[in-house]
Specification:
mainly beta; OB fold (Dihydrolipoamide Acetyltransferase, E2P)
Length: 119
């Protein structure tokens, strides 16, 4: 069990059976993470432990002297020990390929959905 990953402490175990069965958890499983990380908002969550995150960035278009907003999406693994929800801002780390489309895993929830609504 890793106590910290990229400076993030391990979350408390929620359900022993849920965390024990997830071998792709970076804290309680055998999944190693790399230093490359992303910050994004969860826009979709599937039942099989997969989530889709999205982040928006602006790009300057010189011809029109305006900014254009672009967005990127990545499919990530949502471990049972973290269990992030739709609308939460999360920290994601790169890892080995978990499936055909998943190459990242959620390691921390930065802003919960309730704190986003209060603002």
């Amino acid at each position: 069990m890793a106590k910290t990953i990229l400076g993030v402490p391990a979350p408390a175990k929620k359900a022993k059976s849920a965390t024990a069965s997830d071998k792709n958890c970076p804290f309680y499983g055998k999944l190693n993470v790399k230093k490359a990380n992303l910050v994004g908002t969860i826009i979709k969550k599937d039942a099989n432990g997969t989530a889709t995150i999205e982040w928006v960035r602006s790009k300057f278009v010189p011809k029109y002297e305006r900014f254009q907003y672009r967005k990127s999406r990545v499919r990530v693994h949502n471990p049972a020990s973290i269990n992030a929800k739709v609308g939460e801002k999360v920290l994601v780390a790169r890892t080995r390929p978990i499936s055909k489309t998943k190459h990242h895993v959620i390691i921390n929830v930065l802003e919960s959905e309730s704190s986003v609504e209060k603002k």
